């Protein structure tokens, strides 16, 4: 029987060089949150988002030395476990540094995009979707456990919509969510920059050079941006 585990991380930043500061998960009725001292100092930009400071973690052990790593690794890597995260490629990259590699995962960001083929939703970040979908829950934004509670409700909304639109049962919907999450999303509309609101396909025809420039920026960046790289290569036919 599948175990659905909702999890979130707070980190020293959003690039490949960054490390875990906090992890939280919810597995049925069990919830867990832990705070750790990372290999890098937490920069002010990161503290401004999650409000975790270097002073708060000064006496904390590293995640690997805390004893929690072994417990979470066993749970997340269990063959019956499906871990769920929003923008999962980033969180999976962070926990891979801690020697945790789940076998099955669902990315609610990619599923949300899949269920919005016309690109009607302006943004897909977790807190935007929380208020767009009127998810009524007491949870602190950008706190790992708070985000997990929102994530759980978002997952249920997405699964319900998937079941309704594609006429499938619970198990089929879970398998479809895993399949959608396993590859990058094809994006359709710019939600930033000088072409905001325009279809990417139209911009490619009118301003191909911009797409080529943007792809170069994405490839050179340390941020995890698989969806944009895949999308730009698709429209540029590279």
Describe the protein's architecture and organization:
The structure is a single chain. With 238 residues, this protein is α/β, with parallel strands linked by helices. The chain folds into two domains: 3-181, 2-Layer Sandwich (Nucleotidyltransferase, domain 5); 184-238, no CATH class. The chain is 44% helix and 13% strand. The chain has helices at 44-50, 68-76, 88-96, 108-114, 126-132, 144-166, 170-181, 200-206, 208-220, 226-236; strands spanning 3-11, 20-27, 30-35, 81-85, 105-107. It has a five-stranded mixed β-sheet with strand order 3-2-1-4-5, with helices on both faces. Helix 3 links the parallel strand 4 (81-85) and strand 5. Helix 5 crosses helix 6 (144-166) and helix 8 packs across helix 9. The protein is globular, with a radius of gyration of 18 Å. The mean pLDDT is 93.
Task: Fill in the keyword field for this structure.
globular, 238 residues
End-to-end gap: 42 Å
User: Pairing-aware structural class of the strands and helices?
Assistant: alpha/beta
Identify the overall geometry.
Answer: globular
The residue ranges in which pLDDT falls below 50 over 5 or more consecutive positions are: none
Mean pLDDT: 93
Number of helices: 10
Q: What is the number of beta strands?
A: 5
Write the layout of secondary structure elements.
Layout: E1 3-11, E2 20-27, E3 30-35, H1 44-50, H2 68-76, E4 81-85, H3 88-96, E5 105-107, H4 108-114, H5 126-132, H6 144-166, H7 170-181, H8 200-206, H9 208-220, H10 226-236
Parallel strand pairs: 1-4, 4-5
Antiparallel strand pairs: 1-2, 2-3
């Amino acid at each position: 029987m599948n175990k659905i585990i909702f999890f979130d991380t707070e980190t020293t930043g959003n690039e490949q060089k960054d490390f875990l500061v906090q992890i939280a998960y919810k597995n049925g009725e069990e919830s867990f949150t832990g705070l750790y001292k990372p290999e890098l100092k937490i920069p002010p930009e990161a503290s401004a988002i999650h409000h975790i400071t270097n002073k708060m973690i000064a006496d904390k052990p590293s995640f690997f030395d805390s004893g929690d790593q072994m417990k979470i690794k066993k749970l997340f890597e269990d063959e019956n476990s499906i871990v769920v995260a929003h923008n999962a490629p980033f969180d999976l990259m962070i926990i891979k540094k801690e020697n945790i590699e789940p076998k099955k995962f669902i990315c609610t960001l990619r599923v949300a995009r899949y269920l919005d083929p016309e690109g009607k939703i302006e943004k897909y970040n977790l807190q935007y979707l929380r208020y767009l979908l009127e998810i009524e829950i007491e949870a602190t934004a950008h706190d790992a456990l708070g985000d997990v509670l929102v994530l759980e409700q978002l997952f249920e909304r997405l699964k319900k919509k998937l079941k309704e639109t594609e006429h499938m049962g619970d198990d089929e919907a879970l398998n479809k969510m895993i399949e959608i999450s396993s590859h990058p999303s094809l994006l359709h509309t710019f939600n930033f920059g000088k072409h905001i609101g325009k279809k990417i396909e139209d911009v490619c025809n009118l301003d191909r050079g911009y797409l080529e420039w943007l792809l170069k920026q994405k490839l050179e960046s340390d941020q995890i941006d698989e969806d944009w790289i895949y999308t730009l290569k698709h429209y540029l036919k590279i």
